[in-house]
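Bench notes, afternoon.
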Amino acid sequence: MQYNRRNITNNFPLSFYLAVGIFFVILVIIFRPFAIVNAGERGVVMKFGKVQNQILDEGIHPIIPIVTSVKRLNVRVQQNTFQSDAASKDLQKITTELAVNWHIDPISANKVFQQVGDEQQIVTGIITPAVSEVLKAATAKKTAEEIIALRTQLKEEIDSNLKKRLANYGVIVDDVSLVNFAFSPEFNKAIEAKQIAEQEAKQAEFSAKKATQDAQAEINRAKGQAEAQRLQRQTLTAQLLQQKAIEKWDGHFPTVIGGNGTLPLININPTNFANQPKQENQ
């Protein structure tokens, strides 16, 4: 009996401490007297639902259960795609798809949550209407053709205006990308017809220039040949013609000779050749 009582007495403190420990762990799990802020997040501290000035960085932070709560906000760069309809300066309907890279300003996380809300509320309540208004204001300044030709300039204008508009809410715009422009079918047909007409006009202009160049080349060749013939007539002499005749002689005498039996030596007067074209023209 004494042994059993001693055994019960020795086991009692161990069981008690074990039960207390389990109870404490259960309380910690239920009430969580600490807050963990993950990488790329900021913690907004609230006491009885009221947003405090304190912002928790990444890591583990002790808090008072029930009294203090922490709302975690993602401050990493996020991308959202928006699609909006607008009208150009020449009243062409344009459907624009653009992507916005943005993030919450880490030092203003508490004010952003207090004034706007979490990430989803920021997108639906702030970014979406701002994108629509900025896009409509930018496209209204340009015609449809200018929007296509000056795409980079339009992107820069939208980027700059959107950054200024969202900075007041603690939202930082990192970049804006114009993904796609969609015009009405009628406008697309008009653009295609214009491009075809421009290509045909360029082809006709090229053909005209080529014909002019070919004609000028023929004139230059004719002038060159006439000049060569003129110079050749000026250089012809009796001695030169006599030499050419001797060079071309094959060594055989003609079979027909004059009545006196002599073989005349060819004597060519260059003046006759120089005057021959004039006589033919007359």
